[in-house]
Amino acid sequence: MISNASDMPFGPGSVAERMHDIREAARVVSEGFSRAYMRECIDQHRFPQEIWETLGEYGLLGISIPEDLGGSGGGQVELVALMEALAEAGLVLPMLLLTGFARVPIIRHGTPEQIERFVKPTISGTEKLCFAITEPDAGTNSFAMSSLATREGDGYRLTGRKVFISGAADADRMLVVARTQKVGEVGRRTEGMSLFVVDTDAPGVQLQPLNIDVGWPERQYLVFFDEVRLDADRLIGLPGQGLAGMFEALNSERLLVTAMSVGLGNYALKKAVAYANERKPFGVPIGGYQALQHRLAEAKAELEAARLMMIQAAATFDAGGNAGAHANMAKLLGSRAAVKAVEAALQTHGGYGFDRDYDIITLWPSVRLMEIAPINNEMLLNYIGEHVLGLPKSY
């Protein structure tokens, strides 16, 4: 049995205790859904509605929403614990990640009426959220986005395109980052950005599936906004001042991606250890060979390091501190560690690792994606170099 070395007590009411409670609840839920069920959803690109509804029934979709708003309380600590535990059971649920971080700016900057309308329905799971920021031309340089929400009467008119929008067809609404001032009209490129809640079936919204398979139930989409009419109450916060909410959402996203990475990495290691203890081509288990054992041990050590960084960043996020640096570091370490774990599991299984029935190669697209999305690791290194180490801007 592989344990999480960082599941250690830090005192009454500690982060570890908070995570333990959620992991136990996730364990109960995951026992009712097999990896075969998840594989079927992934292969058919069918949303896992059954497990989604079960998570809602257990109150787990309300994690990170204050109890006075109808949620289950807690914060990012509990949310990453849930994401990690489900992934560790082989249950890949990007919609949990998407809904979880997309509602952060609404909770923090929205009006009570907006929270009632856009957040509360996600607690039971009757509505889902996705997030739309990346554009075909701008790519990683989100400040260069061209999607524009123009003031019209008492509302806005949205035009533009977004790409790699996960789960757009499964979500009921998307949190869209758009400019309310063109980049050439502002003194600083960080100005003039706003957040809007857009219904995925609104007139003028068109979803085009991309021919991408990353081992998720949800597809990726190119989204077109053709003169989409938005009432004023679809704007979250003040016009042109959406930067803080955007980064709050993105920091949450990095932590949840880390949780998925660590969970899937540990899932792969569990399968590798079980196989290494049983496989005896020369009469003894191959797990006793140092060349193989060390590779698995290194992957485990790196997963644990990423997990601790994730927990630290999540606790800082919940305390209202600046979690940016540690969230970026956690995503960097977690994605790398997950790839290392799956590669170690592949090597352990030899040729069988490439047989989809052994369920190792099936993990590869998802963990490898994490080194590229939601932001590539090279940009994370740029951030650390510039904002943590104080080096000159490198790009």
Automatic annotation (TrEMBL):
Enzyme Commission designation: 1.-.-.-
Residues covered by the Acyl-CoA dehydrogenase/oxidase N-terminal domain: 20-125
Domain of life: Bacteria
Enzyme class, broadest EC rank: oxidoreductase
Keyword Flavoprotein (UniProt): yes
Domain Acyl-CoA oxidase/dehydrogenase middle: 130-218
Alphabetic keyword roster: Coiled coil, FAD, Flavoprotein, Oxidoreductase
InterPro entries in the cross-refs: Acyl-CoA_Oxase/DH_mid-dom, Acyl-CoA_Oxase/DH_mid-dom_sf, AcylCo_DH-like_C, AcylCo_DH/oxidase_C, AcylCoA_DH/ox_N, AcylCoA_DH/ox_N_sf, AcylCoA_DH/oxidase_NM_dom_sf
Keyword hit for Oxidoreductase: yes
Protein family (similarity comment): Belongs to the acyl-CoA dehydrogenase family.
Protein name listed in UniProt: Acyl-CoA dehydrogenase family protein
Organism: Sinimarinibacterium thermocellulolyticum
